[in-house]
Amino acid sequence: MLLLCPASLEAYLSDLPVAAAVLPRLQMLLLRDETNIDEVVELVRFDPSLATRVMHAAGSAYYGRARDVTSLGDAVALLGLREAYRVTAAFAMSRFLNTPLRIYGMGPAEYWRRSIACALVMEQQAPTRGLDECVAYTAGLLHAIGMVLIDRHLRTVGDPGMLLRELPSTPLIRQEQRLIGMTHAQVAGVVLRKWNFGSEVVVPIEFQYEPARAPVRGAAMTTLLVEARTLAQEVVRDLPPPRSGRGEAREADLEEGDLGARILALESWLR
User: Fold this and answer.
1) Span 100-110, average pLDDT
2) What residue numbers bound the domain in which 178 lies?
């Protein structure tokens, strides 16, 4: 039997980066009308490696600076609360999302790029729809996280050589449903609730393939995710192959601030 059960999900989640536990609570802080820097610092300090990365980011050339930042409080103040969240989210999930999905025929760079591209598109488009940028960014970043668990499950209990591909005659989600009894969107819903993400993030991810069935309160964000997912795939398709050197954005003729350039810059910074 290849069905994916809650007990298996628990086992697959055991190596989740500790930093990921910070995200739901940090997002809740940012959704409040009044949040002070000390509250954010206290949360980020929860994971020392994450705190170090936030400090490094605040003083890095990626953010237009090149100086040492000696305290986490100064780092958060320099970045601003929203940017501190983006840094936290990108780094916390990079170790989880930057993984090959062999069952889906997808390398680590492609999966990571799709995730971050979707997050950036969602964040960019959210204000025009009256939606929160932080929630949109999170939903975009985590929209395909169910694939990680399905990939791990099928490689563990199924044929490691199995390959799932989007086909005109058999959509990917139908193949998943047939094999394990759930789609990657539904798996993501279970996992994100387990991680204590709110419905504002979970609903659009869970209903991204059935937007007409999304609850009214999550309908607009779900529609945005459906559109952003397609745009993100187009952006990623046009990016150069990943490599260890620098200057990728210039070589790909991408302008500074362009979505593709932002993805490559972030990718380079996270290495």
Assistant:
1) 88
2) 6-237
**Pick from 171, 16, 254, 4: nearest CA to 267:** 254
Q: What residue type is 15 in one-letter code?
A: D
With left for phi above 0 and alpha for psi between -120 and 50, is residue 158 left, alpha or beta?
beta
Structural element, H or E, at residue 260: helix 259-270
Q: Rounded to an integer, what distance in angstroms lies between the CA atom of residue 200 and that of residue 221?
A: 8
pTM assigned to the model: 0.85
Identify whether the C-beta of residue 227 lies closer than 8 Å to the C-beta of residue 219. no
Mean pLDDT of 21-39: 79
Q: 37-44 and 81-97 are packed helices; what angle lies between their axes, rounded to 10 degrees?
A: 20
Give pLDDT, residue 251.
Answer: 45
Has residue 199 got a pLDDT over 90?
yes
Condensed to tens digits (0 to 9), the pLDDT of residues 127-172 reads 999 999 989 999 999 999 999 889 988 888 877 778 888 777 789 9
Asked whether the beta carbons of 29 and 135 are under 8 A apart, the reply is no
**Considering the domain boundaries, does residue 56 fall inside one?**
yes
**Number of domains comprising the chain:** 1
Would residue 248 count as lying in a domain? no
> CATH number of the domain that 132 lies in?
1.10.3210.10
The answer to whether residue 259 sits within a structural domain is no
Q: Do 195 and 149 form a contact (C-beta atoms < 8 A)?
A: no
Q: Among residues 88, 82, 124, which one has the least CA distance to residue 235?
A: 124
Asked if residue 76 belongs to a domain, the reply is yes
DSSP 25-44: HHHHHHHSS---HHHHHHHH
